[in-house]
Amino acid sequence: MPALRPTLILRTAAEQWKQYNWPKTLNLPKSALPARASAADLAKYRQRCADDLYAWQRANRPAHNEFVLHDGPPYANGAVHVGHALNKVLKDLILRAELARGRRVQYRPGWDCHGLPIELKALQQTRTTRDEPQALVDAPKQEATVSSGLGMSALEIRNKAHTLATQTIESQKSSFREWGVMGEWDKPYKTMDLDFEIRQLGVFREMVRKNLISRHHRPVYWSPSSGTALAEAELEYDDNHECTAAFVNMPFTRLPRVLESLGAFHAGDARHSVVSALIWTTTPWTLPANQAVALGQDIEYSVLKLESAEQPTEYLLAATDRIEHVRSFLLKGFTLSVVPKASNILGRDLVDGYAACLNVFQNLESPLFLAPFVTATSGTGVVHMAPGHGMDDYLVCQQNGIHSALTPVDGEGRYTAEVFPASPDQNHRFIGLAVQTAGVQAALEVLAIPQKDWLARKGLVVNNQVFATHTFTHKNPIDWRTKQPVITRATAQWFADTSALKTPATNSLSSVIFIPESGKNRLTTFLAGRSQWCISRQRAWGVPIPALYHKETGEGCIMDQSIAHIIDVLQQRGTNAWFEDAPDDPVWVHSSLPPGKWVRGQDTMDVWFDSGTTWTGLEPRNADRPISDVYVEGTDQHRGWFQSSLLTHVAMQDLNDNPKAPYAKLITHGFTLDAEGRKMSKSIGNVIDPEQILEGSLLPPVKEKKQRGKRQAAKEDQVANDRPKYDAMGPDALRLWVASGDYTRDVTIAVPLLQDVQNTLQKYRVTFKWLLGVLEDCVPYNGTVAGKPLSFVDQAILYRLHEVAVLVHEAHSSYTFHRAVKEITSFVNNDLSAFYFEICKDTLYTGLAVDRVRTQGVLQTILHQLMLMLAPVTPHLIEEVWDFMPAALKKHSVHPMQRIWEVVDTKSERERHPGPDIQVQMESFGKLSAAVKLAQEDARKAGKLKSGLACSVHIQLPRDGNKVLDLHVKEWETRGELADLLVVSQARVEQTESSANDPATSWRFEQEFGDGGKVIVNPPTGMKCVRCWKYTADEEGAPCQHCQAVLKEKAS
């Protein structure tokens, strides 16, 4: 007997369908993925995606395919900041990108434990009642006040510093791990560990063997506030430093012969007016240490006549091009004119080996030299040289036979008894003056006194040696810790010979890949400009320089046998013993040295030598491979760790056999900036704590829900007294912020930016939740669906997925993570949410089983690829998605963080799948869809349309229009996909010149598209289906025929 139609046996549609609970007939998404992970779950996911993953890959990935990222050690001297987050998360992104490519990765975190930053922080802590390292913020003034050691012994300081470093390491380690950074956290390297110190001393010993280490009395950067020498990498700069600059007359005791020959001038003769070299200096306090005067070889000089009604005439020598500049400082009542017979004389003619000026403080002559650094673009073109206070001055003086470097300044930056031997009475007044303040004033006051006795004894009559003074603002080096001005001061220090290292070091960079490429020029420029590396420091907390000094002569001993012996003793007793034993304890003296004649030095090594030798902890590799695949640090490390690592590594190789750099790739990231583009600084108060990002406290607090019931008032009082509650952003938000920025430049962090990051992360989560929900009942997809070919929209989204996967894979491989995040976010928002999901929801919720299986197969592909794309950036979220993945799917899948991600390029993919170019079809659909949406929007504005399903679309194609577009539209209609693609209830296509055949409707809205095509939006022709809500039902209150077929399928 034939089956009876329901309409034949039931009285009305309403009566027939009343029995159904329509929502229960739908296949709505079902996922237990929460809105956010709890703290306990987050800790579980972190363990899995970081510690467990790192251990798994070390055990399962092949050792021959290892990728080594050598960690640049942060200082163990305080709490973490957002700059740490940028650095550590970036490193983790790189590791995870390499892991996805099938590599076995190695990352051993490390800490820089010695040096001034930690010693000063420990001393600062001594004066506080709080011992937690995070309680000690950068306080330059406080650090400056404790730099003298507070009367503590070296051993006491070292113990304090060791305790602080140990506490800080644990605090920082906890934060780094909380960000999901994977690595060997249970065995980090620490530069204060004895095994590290011994390896470091081994590098020092080898450099001594190669004559690369020596001791000299030469100028170095010196911090009076810290009481130690500083390396260039330990300097910061004050761009607005104010000082007293001075124009000073240095009288000639012997005139250049070219001037004497003119017969108008006589030096050292009281019967004639004095001729002086007019110098300009920004450091008048260095004038007592003057030992020479410099001119420029090709600069033209003129003698200027200085006259006034009240004082005898004087003559000044200055560069011709600087006369107008000098004249601008002329005091009232004075005139300045050029002596015609003594003008435009070249510097090389004035410097004749005979001429000299007088240093009135020392009562000594200062010869004239030529110097390449003299210019006629600043000052007077005449430069006073104090080799004890300037490296350029020192080098010129050395070349010209002046081998001493007078330095009448002590370690605190105060004048010593050597400052003014020409006048014992005045000398007493100078001793102990701070050179940069009171010393400047005192020196200028002496030079301003007329008719000085010590000048008269030279036969000179000088009214006032100070031509003019003025306030000058310039860029000046400051101590990186105390933020106080730094001076240049000659002291006895240990130096590494960079002149012998920089050429082979520079050559080794030819095979290194730089990201960004500008890093190569920056590093090579710093190398080329480096004349010396002062490796000794006058501090207690560090690795001791293994040198002995002769008690009587002060001669330093660093012979190989002595160093080897000292290293053996240190290995047995530890480095504290060096500072604990009596200075002349014989246990430290090698048997080949005369007993009782030697004492140990107290200098420690530069911390850049510490961190520069961290590569010694890496395992040796094949000769053709650098010891590390990549170094990643901030741009300031071109003059710091990148350079010190390179120099020490090259020094340990044969300098004549093409030594290699310690890294194959050098990646540089910028600094973190606030919303106003300012560098993060605690002194400014714009520093952001990463914990604020994790807990969400930078964003507006969560609004409390209104309380109801009889205890409402009490609860309101409690809420008012409670601290604000915030929506935690979690570690993936921090990671997403890092990945979203172009790290090769300075990276901005601000509240609006973090809100965007939070919204993006939430979009990822919602997308995964929906995918898991609609795949809850899926059958694992094997690449095909029997009897049901992919629809256009399925092909389109898979094509776009492949395009995006190729781009993201390429971005991960090149470490341009911001490009990957941009592509992923655009794909999720535009291709998935606004396109594919919108179209396929009807199929998934209301469709036949075969259509649902086909769509679920596509969605499985999307889910797997999306997890692979986001695994490096948001590992906690991916681990959580994996945890909630349907069991059937998980059974047939590989964990996304253990899977090797391979993507075939788009061109090859298309060549394997001949047929209509899906890209062209997508362009055609884009034009059609845009026109339909515009017409729908017009209908909404007119109040005729609310839901997009409450309309039908009539598409008119011109006979001579775009043939390709027309073909696509007709094909979609023929396959029954057009209405679903446009998310409307009906759609029909007609090739005509007019709309004469279009039936009359209550309203219509038109839009043109393509080449003469038109879309017409009309009211739907059917009734609203009670199940799918399309206007395709035959009767009101009844399901459409499609839904009836689905119900029948479900019932069977």
From TrEMBL:
EC category: ligase
GO terms assigned for molecular function: aminoacyl-tRNA deacylase activity; ATP binding; isoleucine-tRNA ligase activity; tRNA binding
Positions with biased composition (Basic and acidic residues): 713-726
Keywords of the record: Aminoacyl-tRNA synthetase, ATP-binding, Ligase, Nucleotide-binding, Protein biosynthesis
GO biological process: isoleucyl-tRNA aminoacylation; mitochondrial translation
Pfam families named in the record: Anticodon_1, tRNA-synt_1
GO cellular component, as recorded: mitochondrion
Coiled coil: none
SUPFAM superfamilies reported for this sequence: Anticodon-binding domain of a subclass of class I aminoacyl-tRNA synthetases (SSF47323), Nucleotidylyl transferase (SSF52374), ValRS/IleRS/LeuRS editing domain (SSF50677)
Domain Aminoacyl-tRNA synthetase class Ia: 51-749
Region (Disordered): 698-726
The EC number(s) this enzyme carries: 6.1.1.5
Stretches assigned to the Methionyl/Valyl/Leucyl/Isoleucyl-tRNA synthetase anticodon-binding domain: 794-954
Family membership: Belongs to the class-I aminoacyl-tRNA synthetase family.
Entry protein name: isoleucine--tRNA ligase
Organism per entry: Recurvomyces mirabilis
GN (gene name): ISM1
